[in-house]
């Protein structure tokens, strides 16, 4: 009897290194032809699986895989899609099993954050309840670094490096012009509930005068009077003030400063930009000329500044997802376990999906400075390894090469189906 096929899909906000995870998994599957058949990829995550929009990764050659590891974003497409419970949407789960059966899928690898691990857990439980032989492994990915039970999430180290470097570079510009121009610069970074990305900026703050002078974390309530006093003191001391603010900064009542109204597919509040609001506050209350920038997609797509550590971790979780699946692990997520700080030594492991699905790991209180505006030495020790090492992508005349990958569609075997949006 032929070996069962495998299916991989990317989910949620993409990163600078998620395609390196895909490369690691594809290469690992190919090393086991007797136990694993073809590897398909769902186009646009679980939506592509539901709609039978599959890609044959077997058409990717060695040069294609090398390019894959150099590309940010999600080559196979991603999605933000809340898979409701089987009780709420039984037809979606029945459709998934139909797709799995039609393409002889025996292994399902889902690469994403906490919401994605919830999807993987639901699929694993449903398949087991219906007696369908399916091994499900979650693979971690999130720039927010808020997945519990793992030392870090692949994708975080590269965005952390980008934010730290960008903060330092922008601060040099501000310092040069502060005597006659901008006095305050605010960089807004991602992080709805957890301040891991904002904390990374603190890695370049080595002396009191170094940027960022102030970091605003979601874990600490924003107090206008305290914030303005800190800005005033900083400008008085150094002539300028550089601030890094998490998009999820909240006031004392728990309301997001940047709440814009509306919710996304997972029910999360849509945020409208905290940096412009803080900039207006500084200018209105203190009279300092202030500029604001929003890192937005730039921070998570910055493959040119990806850390070598992050790339190594990303490739390892993809590779070892296959190893653990063949060992019989099921309904688990691959994790990274820290063995030492200096040098940074680690290994992979696994944890049951139920311990990570829909759960968030916030920045520990011990990582936030007593005044609430910076990171501690403990945070620095923990974060420093994630940004280490250079890993520049291949370029052509100094620019990214053209992307020409043979993403060949698998022939559909079922009736057309459109998943409800």
Task: Report on the architecture of this protein.
By secondary structure, the chain is α/β, with parallel strands linked by helices. The protein folds into two domains: about 5-140 and about 305-360, Rossmann fold (3-Layer(aba) Sandwich), CATH 3.40.50.450; about 155-300, Rossmann fold, CATH 3.40.50.460. Helix content is about 35%, strand content about 15%. It is built from twelve helices and 13 strands. The protein has helices spanning about 20-30, 45-50, 60-70, 90-100, 115-130, 155-175, 195-200, 225-240, 275-285, 295-300, 310-325, 375-385, and strands at about 5-10, 40, 55, 105-110, 135-140, 185-190, 215, 240-245, 260-265, 270, 290-295, 330-340, 345-350. The strands form three sheets. It has a seven-stranded mixed beta sheet, with helices on both faces. The longest helix is centred in the middle third of the chain and has 22 residues, at about 155-175. The two termini are about 40 Å apart. The mean pLDDT is about 95.
């Amino acid at each position: 009897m032929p070996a069962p096929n495998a299916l991989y899909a990317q989910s949620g906000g993409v990163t600078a290194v998620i395609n390196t995870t895909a490369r690691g998994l594809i290469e690992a599957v190919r090393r086991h032809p007797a136990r694993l058949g073809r590897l398909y990829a769902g186009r646009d995550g679980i939506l592509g699986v539901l709609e039978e929009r599959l890609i044959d990764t077997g058409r990717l050659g060695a040069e294609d895989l090398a390019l894959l590891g150099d590309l940010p974003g999600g080559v196979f497409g991603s999605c933000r899609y809340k898979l409701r419970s089987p009780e709420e949407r039984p037809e979606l789960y029945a459709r998934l099993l139909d797709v799995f059966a039609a393409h002889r899928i025996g292994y399902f690898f889902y690469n994403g954050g906490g919401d994605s691990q919830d999807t993987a857990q639901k699929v694993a439980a449903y398949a087991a309840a219906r007696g369908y032989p399916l091994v499900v492994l979650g693979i971690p990915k999130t720039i927010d670094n808020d997945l519990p039970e793992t030392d870090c999430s692949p994708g975080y180290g590269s965005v952390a490096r980008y934010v730290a470097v960008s903060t330092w570079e922008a601060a040099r510009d501000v310092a040069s012009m502060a005597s006659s121009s901008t006095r305050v610069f605010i960089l807004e970074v991602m992080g709805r509930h957890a301040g891991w990305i904002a904390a990374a900026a603190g890695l370049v703050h080595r002396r009191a005068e170094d940027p960022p002078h102030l970091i605003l974390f979601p874990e600490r309530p924003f107090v206008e009077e305290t914030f303005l006093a800190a800005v005033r003191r900083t400008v008085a001391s150094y002539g300028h003030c550089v601030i890094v603010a998490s998009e999820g900064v909240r006031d004392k009542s728990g309301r997001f400063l940047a709440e814009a109204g509306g919710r996304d597919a997972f029910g999360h509040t849509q945020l409208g930009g905290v940096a412009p609001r803080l900039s207006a506050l500084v200018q209105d209350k203190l009279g300092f000329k202030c500029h604001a920038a929003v890192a937005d997609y730039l921070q998570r797509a910055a493959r040119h500044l990806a850390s070598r550590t992050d790339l190594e971790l990303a490739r390892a979780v993809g590779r070892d997802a296959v190893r653990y699946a063949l060992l019989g692990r099921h309904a688990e997520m691959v994790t990274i376990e820290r063995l030492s700080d200096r040098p940074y030594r680690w290994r992979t492991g696994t944890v049951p999906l139920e311990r990570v699905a829909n759960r968030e790991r916030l920045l520990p209180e011990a990582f936030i400075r007593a005044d609430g505006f910076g990171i501690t030495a403990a945070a620095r020790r923990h974060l420093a390894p994630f940004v280490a090492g250079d890993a520049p992508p291949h370029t052509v005349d100094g620019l990214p090469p053209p992307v020409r990958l043979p993403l060949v569609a698998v022939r559909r075997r079922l009736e057309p189906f459109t998943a409800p949006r």
